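Worked example 3 (structure in, sequence out).
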């Protein structure tokens, strides 16, 4: 059975390290490259599709931000649990989980799962997620007994077109977050995070809105700054705000100050001029419409209050803490609890082994998010708040 990511609680199961001198014949330890053949054999025995390759296992064992745990009995491996850790967030993912068919029903899976949860907590992560086939009743029973809850169904998710379920579990005692129901939309181009984030926020407020790539490109054309750090121009808060307003939403824009954004991201004086002119034109249009403009810093408490009162915030962050690359990036804030903000990140880094599971309702420590929510040497900040547009006075009169 294969399982993928969810949320968990602390447990007391110990993990032996590869160098442990213990003579225990039944133990769980961290895997090494020496276990590759045994891991591949388990993979072949357990899965007909969606199998991990030798190359993938080697990468995950040696270079990825991950840990692979194996259950070893008398020198033979009975199963494994592979956990991915995500930089900048409190989310980990149970990426793959397998127990040899002849060893199932002996508690091997439960022990591996408990240990994976304990290791996740020890690494400082507050959530574990997974995907499981909808037709895998045994795996679902294991997860639900361990306290995992269903997030959503995943139609046509697996290689053989089988449906899946996304589950999660919280680590330790923590209140469930207050979440806005925000559908997820993955950006399809490296420079369309802004349009993708805006589409998610609009869909949350208008469920009838159809999300598709044509809309993503329309929004980018409307909101682009023309130039950015490299390649195609990204989208700033003014252009995105205008696009949302044109489509019938109430919009508020909050930026640090009146300085042009992103001009420090290019060296050419001509490009700096063009970026500034585009934003000047967009700002003039904003001031001619009922779009609220605020200057100053927006706190986590401010974002929470916007969510409480029906707003959906889009926040520009620096992607450095998530992807170790310095470029501005838009995310949607979907909820909060006592310790975390939750965000939808439209960028799915498949090269790092991620799937949309890893980008939905990402828990980020509030202090960490405060550090993320700025860009560039000058610490530029930008937030857009979307709301349903209130009916005009004339509309209200017609209803009475």
């Amino acid at each position: 059975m294969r399982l993928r990511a969810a949320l968990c609680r602390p447990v007391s199961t110990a993990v032996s390290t590869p160098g442990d001198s213990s003579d225990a014949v039944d133990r769980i330890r961290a895997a090494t490259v020496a276990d590759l053949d045994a891991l591949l054999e388990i993979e072949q025995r357990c899965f007909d599709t969606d199998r991990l390759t030798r190359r993938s296992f080697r990468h995950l064992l040696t270079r990825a931000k991950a840990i692979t745990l194996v259950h070893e009995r008398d020198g033979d491996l009975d199963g494994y649990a592979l956990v991915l850790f995500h930089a900048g967030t409190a989310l980990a993912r149970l990426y793959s989980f397998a127990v040899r068919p002849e060893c199932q029903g002996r508690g091997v899976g439960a022990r591996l799962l408990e240990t994976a949860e304990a290791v996740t907590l020890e690494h400082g992560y507050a959530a574990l997620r997974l995907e499981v086939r909808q037709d895998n009743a045994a795996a679902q029973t294991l997860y639900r007994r361990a306290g995992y809850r269903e997030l959503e169904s995943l139609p046509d998710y697996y290689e053989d077109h089988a449906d899946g379920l996304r589950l999660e579990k919280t680590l330790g005692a923590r209140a469930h977050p207050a979440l806005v129901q925000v559908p997820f939309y993955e950006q399809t181009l490296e420079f369309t995070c802004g349009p993708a984030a805006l589409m998610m926020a609009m869909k949350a407020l208008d469920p009838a809105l159809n999300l598709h790539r044509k809309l993503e490109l329309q929004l980018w054309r409307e909101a682009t700054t023309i130039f950015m750090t490299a390649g195609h121009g990204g989208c700033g808060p003014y252009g995105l705000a205008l696009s949302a307003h044109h489509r019938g939403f109430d919009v508020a824009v909050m930026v640090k100050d009146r300085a042009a954004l992103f001009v420090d991201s290019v060296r050419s004086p001509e490009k700096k001029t063009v970026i500034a002119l585009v934003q000047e034109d967009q700002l003039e249009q904003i001031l001619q419409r009922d779009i609220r403009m605020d200057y100053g810093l927006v706190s986590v408490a401010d974002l929470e209050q916007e969510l409480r009162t029906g707003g959906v915030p889009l926040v520009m962050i620096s992607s450095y803490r998530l992807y170790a690359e310095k470029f501005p990036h838009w995310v949607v804030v979907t909820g909060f609890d006592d310790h975390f903000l939750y965000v939808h990140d439209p960028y799915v880094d498949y090269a790092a082994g991620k799937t949309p599971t890893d980008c939905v309702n990402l828990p980020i420590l509030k202090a960490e998010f405060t550090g993320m929510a700025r860009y560039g040497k000058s610490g530029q900040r930008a937030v857009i708040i979307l709301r349903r547009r209130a009916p005009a006075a004339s509309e209200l009169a017609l209803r009475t």
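Notes: The chain is about 30% helix and 25% strand. The first strand starts at residue 26 and ends at 30.
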